[in-house]
Amino acid sequence: MALRVRALRRGELDSMLGCFQAAFGVDDSSLAVVRNSLVNDPYFLPERVRVGLVDGDVVSHVVILHRAAYVGDLVISVAGVTAVATHPAHQGRGHGTRVMQDAVRLIRQRGYDLAMLTTRLPAFFARFGFREVPKVGGYACPASALARLQVVSPCALQRLDYHAHWRALAAVYHEYSRGRTGMQVRDARFWESWPRRGTFPYGFSSHMDAAGLIAVSDGAVAAYLGAHIPPEENCLFVPELAHLPGREPDALALLRLAAEQFLSRASGRAILHLSGDAPLFAHLREQRVPLELEVGPGLMVLIANPAWLKQAGFRTTDEAIERLFRADPPIMWHRDGY
């Protein structure tokens, strides 16, 4: 019963997902979410799923998600490593190690600049060169403080209709994210397929506890926001907030409206998934909104191809990791899908 390691082949996805379900003990509805997020990922390739097979059955697997991110004005390629698992009946035989070694080989071979993963088993991934760094969960503050924001915005605030507005959102996000370290690079395929993935952000869907809002000026979208309250949590999560340059008041007005709406449902805290250099933070601090960085364990990174470091202004791998992931606050975050 020797292990064979190779790329996933077409028609084997359900077999891999069966292994995933056995390893993680997820129910059928949760498994359907995982399957949906993969098949509707516009960058998904079976080659980037590495599987270990015994007698033709998938018993171990690693999924590599293809992404890109800004480091200043530089765009780097990012491999998001996820779904690392071995079927319970085949654990303890080194299968996971073999498949993970193959995944790291592919990441280096394909020239990825950076690899990222989240885990509760850092010692395992350290064996492959991954290094543990703080995992940022967002900036927390009382939702009531956002509802009291003093904002003067000439924009009209409207409900977001993703299918009608996604091109405008993409244009706003492009201007907002360009050159901002850690922000994901999103092309048209990303925006077109986002609703089909069905997992993020809830604010762009018809999810029960979700809100998608836009600020419109002279017929054009100047800012947008996606927010939701996760099940069984008394928090307002704002995973998406972007605005055109100089339109911070419009984004603040969206924040205030979202907080007002969700306070009526007894939401206590708000979690803002914004980068530490976001222009909004200066305005929030001016209005004495108490912001606390939510940081926890579980994020690991690997500089797979150091060739980009000098171009980005780093002398060594250690310097890059310190400045990107261990600064106060960390600049590079674990974002959607990587």
CATH topology of the largest domain: Aminopeptidase
Helical residues, percent? 25-40%
Overall CATH architecture of the largest domain:
3-Layer(aba) Sandwich
- What distance separates the N and C termini? 34 Å
Determine the strand fraction and express it as a percent band.
Answer: 25-35%
Instruction: Kindly provide the radius of gyration, computed on alpha-carbon positions and rounded to a whole number of angstroms.
Output: 21 Å
CATH domain class name of the largest domain: Alpha Beta
Gross morphology: globular
Oligomeric composition of the shown chains? single chain
Record field, number of beta strands: 12
User: Can you identify the CATH superfamily of the largest domain?
Assistant: Gcn5-related N-acetyltransferase (GNAT)
Low-confidence stretches: none
In total, the number of domains comes to 2
**Widest sheet: strand order?**
1-2-3-4-5-12-6-11-10-9-8-7
Query: Treating each run of at least 4 consecutive H or I residues as one helix, how many helices?
Result: 10
| SSE order | EHHEEEHEHEHEHHEEEHEHEH
Structural class: alpha+beta
Mean pLDDT: 91
